[in-house]
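Thread: quick sanity check before group meeting

JM: Hey all, I'm pulling together slides for Thursday and realized we never actually wrote out the predicted structure for the chain we discussed last week. Dropping the sequence here so it's in one place. If anyone has concerns about the input, flag it before I start.
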Amino acid sequence: MNPTHANRVMLKKLGIVAIAMFGFGFALIPFYNKICEVSGLNKGGEQELAKNTQVDTSRKIRLELDANLNENMPWKFSSMQPIVEVHPGQLMQVDYKAVNNSDVPVTGQAIPSYAPALAVQYFKKIECFCFTKQVLKPHETRIMPVLFVIDPALPKDVKTITLSYTFFNLNPGAQTAAATDKDVHG
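JM (edit): ok, ran it. Output follows.
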């Protein structure tokens, strides 16, 4: 068999394999959608969580919302509702406000903490600014929501939960360099 003929046969085989793989990729889309539909994975988390929880209207939990900044964070950060009352199982949203008081963009990450410590098991966040890094432009103000449900299985003796966020500056060197540059050239 001549090498040119062998190369053509191999090229045809590889072409058929490539076309088959391409077709298989398209066939996976409806297959995946059907699996998600049957398993319930294709539904929005917020709607599914709201539908599957029972609101315990017989009790209210006092939720105290605390906001803190690491010492090198040039922001103002506060809870827009320092105290709210919520029924276990109730879908609730609270908002925090952050303002970058510096002349440079600042990247921050919020770390939550809970009191009492066992509350972390029952506080189910659906949406939270703490899930991702936050970048605020110079003097930018941002309202940041936290969408959550407190699990009705929370022990009955827990009447107050404190949710505290502390923002940490993820680029303090960039801010110091910008301030130094401004002092030198300003």
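AS: nice. The helical segments are 3-39, 45-52, 172-185. Residues 107 and 135 are 4 Å apart (CA to CA).
JM: adding both to the slides.
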